[in-house]
């Protein structure tokens, strides 16, 4: 498709535009564009063309004080295959009417739209994330959930939901763009790109942001934060939910409501993902035998550990370790 991003575009040069907001995060922008540059270099082909814009064609300064040369957004949205909004500091005050109107015009033309770092906020303000899953940098999670309560906002590194792409910023823009390139030009090319960037592995949508829980849910839920802290200190011998709820002074029912409301999963599911996340670190960063990893993360048998791991990460732990090797 001319305006889309899928495997049918593998033989075309795909044009991706980057819309810079004032005080945008330079590293997030540079990481995203570097993946496209490296895809062209390794393939020896012009797989991607990229252009940099502001809504009015005037220069904006990044949060680090650096400026890059920009153009005005194309009047014809069909000139782009994708538009990426690059946010940064004070995004609420920089979310201007020109940018919102331009994004809505592009969305009407079915152009895939991405928000990186706090660019997700601009998409939300334009109403372009209604009915979509999305994410944003962990420092902005609580505020965005308060301002846009209708949205399904995740704490994942990045989220791809149909023609909306959002990521949390920092180096997660590398992961987002690598997954985008993989969906169009295959995993072999992505493997070569990640090797050039000395990336140990390409992270997926299942990887969470590493952030203090108080930023993910706000500081208004001390019992929930305490319950998670108890889980984190009882990985090898997991506690029952009744024991955890009793320790924090609420009923099991209340505990389940808190997890579902603020962490969007049941306590048992969150606990399982916590243990598997710890297991994945051991799997990728140590040479511990599989059964020792399983036991140290609260799994009594290797088959049970392998099944749970595959359900979350898509590959059994043995395959994950062999891919890393």
Explain what this protein looks like in three dimensions.
The protein is α/β, with parallel strands linked by helices and 325 residues long. It folds into two domains: 7-196, Class I glutamine amidotransferase (GATase) domain (Rossmann fold); 221-324, Homeodomain-like (Arc Repressor Mutant, subunit A). 47% of the residues lie in helices and 12% in strands. The strands form two sheets. It has a seven-stranded mixed sheet with strand order 3-2-1-4-5-9-8, sandwiched between helices. The protein has a two-stranded parallel ribbon with strand order 6-7. A hairpin with a 2-residue loop joins β8 (158-161) and β9 (164-167).
Write the layout of secondary structure elements.
Layout lengths: L13 E7 L5 H18 L4 E7 L16 E2 L9 E5 L4 H4 L2 H12 L4 E4 L2 H7 L7 E3 L5 H7 L4 E3 L3 E4 L2 E4 L4 H14 L1 H10 L16 H5 L4 H11 L8 H8 L3 H11 L4 H19 L4 H7 L5 H12 L3 H8 L1
Parallel strand pairs: 1-2, 1-4, 2-3, 4-5, 5-9, 6-7
Antiparallel strand pairs: 8-9
Helix pairs in contact: 1-6, 1-7, 6-7, 9-10
CATH topology title of the largest domain: Rossmann fold
Tally the helices: 15
User: Mean of the pLDDT scores?
Assistant: 89
Give the low-confidence spans: none
Global structural class? alpha/beta
Strand order of the largest sheet: 3-2-1-4-5-9-8
> Element order, helices and strands?
EHEEEHHEHEHEEEHHHHHHHHHH
Number of domains: 2
- The termini sit apart by 37 Å
Question: Describe the biggest sheet?
Answer: 7 strands, mixed
Which value, in Å, is the CA radius of gyration? 21 Å
What's the short version?
This protein is α/β, with parallel strands linked by helices.
